[in-house]
Design goal:
The complex is a heterodimer of chains A (about 240) and B (about 300).
Chain A: E1 7-18, E2 21-27, E3 37-41, E4 51-59, E5 62-68, H1 72-78, E6 85-92, E7 100-109, H2 116-122, E8 124-133, H3 140-143, E9 149-154, E10 161-162, E11 175-179, H4 182-190, E12 196-200, E13 216-219, E14 222-225, E15 232-234, E16 238-239
Parallel strand pairs in A: 7-8, 7-11, 8-9, 9-10, 11-12
Antiparallel strand pairs in A: 1-2, 1-6, 2-5, 3-4, 3-6, 4-5, 12-15, 13-14, 13-16
Chain B: E1 4-6, E2 9-11, E3 15-17, E4 39-41, E5 58-61, E6 64-67, H1 76-82, H2 84-88, E7 93-98, H3 103-114, E8 120-124, H4 141-154, E9 158-162, H5 170-179, E10 184-187, E11 191-194, E12 196-197, E13 202-203, E14 209-213, H6 218-231, E15 236-238, H7 245-253, E16 258-261, H8 263-267, H9 271-285
Helix pairs in contact in B: 3-4, 4-5, 5-6, 7-9
Classes of the chains: A mainly beta (about 240), B alpha/beta (about 300).
Amino acid sequence: MEKNNYVSGKIIKNEQIDNDIFLIELEGSFKGEPGQFYMVRGWDEYPLLPRPLSIFDLENNKISFLYQVVGKGTGILSNLKKGAKVEILGPLGNGFPIVNNQKVALVSGGIGLAPMKYLARKLDCKVDLFAGFRTSSYLMDEMSNFVDNIVITTNDGNEGKKGFVTDYIEDKYDVIYACGPNPMMNSLKKLNLKAKSYYSLEAHMACGIGACLGCAINTTKGIQRVCHEGPVFDGSEVIFDVES
Amino acid sequence: MLKVNICGVEFNNPVIAASGTFGFGREFEPYVDLNKIGGISTKGLTYYKKDGNEGRRIHETASGIMNSIGLQNPSVSEFIKNDLDFMKQFDAKIIANIGGSQVEDYLKSIELIEETDIEIIELNISCPNVKEGGMAFGIKCDIAFDIVKKVREKTNKVLMVKLSPNAENIKEMAISCVEAGADSLSLVNTFNALAIDIYKRKPIFKNVTAGLSGPAIKPIALRMVKEVHDVVDVPIVGMGGIMDWQDAIEFIMAGSTAVQVGTANFIQPNIMEDIIDGIERFMIKENIKDLSEITGII
């Protein structure tokens, strides 16, 4: 049997969307469901580890990832030009369960917007997006093609509503899909909304395939791996360690 | 041509997955031909199930990875019940890696392994991420001697003892373990290391220190393998930052009968297949019929 491995994808586009936010598009036929991720490396030996990036969008002959430059790896990635190649492994993990005919809210904090486009595109529901940013929004025009309403919040009130998305979300949804920093997800959980919730979590990981146990989190079901049982978890099961 | 023998156990080749980097093989099965690799050292097993450590568990450094997993594992008995049959389907030799916090726990684990047909036990007295026990057993020779001797009395299987690079004196440690009854030694485990979050002004890891692996440790690990090879006469399984076949050959020339690959599995899941192929090509090119011709040659 043919074994999976890293495969090359040629960069079609790698553009800066905002200060430290980039969108990379690769040519090729790739698989994946909303919420799943790929391990991505755009360098030879160092940094040692690839970086886990969730699927921003996926079409017949194209896959894209929205990412934030936070360290050396993503810094190198952001400097790659059209035509260069990156190595990717995936799709990995379990994505968002897709629902039909429900009132849905997508809740994102910052780069937590990353899995939301593909998800919104796959949902055949009435969908509202609550998108929180530090000081200004990005990609909202693109998102508006796939959602009904958008509520933008910024920490400083520079754009949209001032504060956090969790200050503005109403208790009128059947399902909430969320992705963002742990404190945001923890606040969302504490709102005790009646909606069924699914959280896509981020964690430092080494292998991305469930072996290293580096991305373990606490849940009501015990220790789970973000890369393998996640990155999407039933919101009622996640126990947040907001320090890390 | 690639076969190696460790105390009567024949491996198809000298490349073994290092404990803690390969689970029980299950996660890697879609990526690696488990019939091709020489062996798998299981995720470190303890008598009681362990949830592992809280907080950050992985941190990348220059040429290395720090981890503080804390021996998360389902327990020896659950491993035997749920995972051993899966591992036995493949040609890779199974090595049971046994860790613990107390001597009694090690001995109880050994009793359970003794009832299986696993041929090799790798005694982990060197985990830096377990608060009690773990590495503490692997730093001082007299403590290591004591635990190895007690385990030796409990098992007829091949007993490989995994040494810590944090041992006070690696040569004396190796001699103590062999005198206590170790049939083989594997080295080195991760180096006790520190990383600091400068914005939080705190260590990255809740346990403050964590274990460093990867290419950063290779030259030191290699030196330790040579030093141990110079003073004991048992098969050595060398490891520490092996990223390609050239690294593996270096470890063999420093005195390793076989090698373990750890961190590299995270970076390229089928790296061990490449390493095996590379070793074979090297042997053909250099007209080496058996790896024993170059083991410890330097």
